[in-house]
Amino acid sequence: MSFGQKMHVEFKISINDLVHENQYEKITKRGDAWFSASEKAWGFPYFIKLDDLQNSKSLILRDAMEIELQILSMSMARIKDDFEEESDDDFPSMPPPM
């Protein structure tokens, strides 16, 4: 992504159960964020307590854990400077989603 662009992403992030087939202890959070080259994003300020993760019987197995990320939607936008004139040509029309 270059400067002058930003990306909107809706996503789900999960820590998966490594023991049970049905992912009994799967922990999931949804997110909705804007990202750009000029602003750094660090994710969730809180996802799971470290003690809960370490004491889990199925989230960490043989010093490994499985993290799953699902991108639900993603779109790009151009960041306009305050001094730029607006024009319909700046943003091409997009076809409707299928």
| Tally of domains | 1
Major sheet characteristics: 3 strands, antiparallel
Rg for CA atoms: 19 Å
Structure annotation, total helices: 1
Mean of all residue-level pLDDT scores: 79
Backbone structural class: mainly beta
Shape: elongated
Content of β-strand: 35-45%
Q: N-to-C SSE series?
A: EEHE
- Give the low-pLDDT segments: none
Strand order of the largest sheet: 2-1-3
Number of strands: 3
Pfam families: MATH_2 (PF22486)
InterPro entries: MATH/TRAF_dom, TRAF-like
Protein name: TRAF-like protein
Domain MATH: 1-71
Characterization of the model:
By secondary structure, the protein is mainly β. The protein has one domain. It contains one helix and three strands. It has a three-stranded antiparallel β-sheet, with no helix packed on it. The two termini are 25 Å apart. This is TRAF-like protein.
Describe the secondary structure blueprint for this structure.
Elements: E1 5-16, E2 27-36, H1 50-55, E3 66-78
Antiparallel strand pairs: 1-2, 1-3
Organism: Corchorus capsularis
Domain MATH: 1-71
Protein name: TRAF-like protein
Short description:
This is TRAF-like protein. The protein is mainly beta. The protein is built from one helix and three strands, in the order E-E-H-E.
Name the descriptors.
single chain; 98 residues; mainly beta; 3 strands; 6% helix
